[in-house]
Amino acid sequence: MRVTGEEPLLHLHAIPAFADNIIWLLHDGRSAWVVDPGDAAPVHAALHELGLELHGILLTHHHLDHTGGVEELVRSSGAQVHGPAGESLPEPVRRVSGGAQVQVLGKPFEVIDVPGHTAGHIAYFSVEASSEPLLFCGDTLFSGGCGRLFEGTPAQMLASLDRLACLPDTTRVCCAHEYTLSNLRFALAVDPHNEALQAYAVRCEVLHAQGALTLPSCMLTERAINPFLRSREPSVRAGLRIQVTVADDDVAVFAALRDWKNNFR
Q: Which band of pLDDT confidence, cut at 50, 70 and 90, is reported for residue 22?
């Protein structure tokens, strides 16, 4: 039972954009924040449909498909923007980095540094905003996969994923792209005997056939099925070594796994 006068939990809403982006929207029934709005048009449409006013924007990194709608949304709403301290972003933006806290409609979100996909990538995590912990991880962690290393190093990305993997089992993993089915095809090539992965792949195929999103995922599931969170597991290393000779070193294994995914068809 919730204490009388306690701030109500926030509602999570997924807004599809472009071919496979997901813009996440949090709201309390009146006011809303969005995460990584690469396009303003679908955000405007969702706000209108739900009868909401936009108050804030969270950015995880600087790529245009995550920031392209910011200027128009700020111009039309006056929303405040928070984003990573070390990246080039549409101004004005309140700069944040790991350890900082952002208040989103009365709920605290912790900022986590997760370099790798970009040099200054951050994520946002809250245990108070919803019935389960919420993670907005941008392009660092995908369901069944992880982001390409455009600016960071394998060591940085491995450390970033280790950091996220320590979050609670029930954490809802709100990735910024619906890449799940292609990621799972790769995961099954790496780890074909993983029964949890096999079952999850079937479940996601059914959702896709129904026209539904596979996201958000949850951290317990990702730790069981995602090869990039499981790169130290013997089964993942055995699958990798069928493809390439690699030193028995955590970073070298992760780098080889990411390189295989880059070229996987």
A: very high
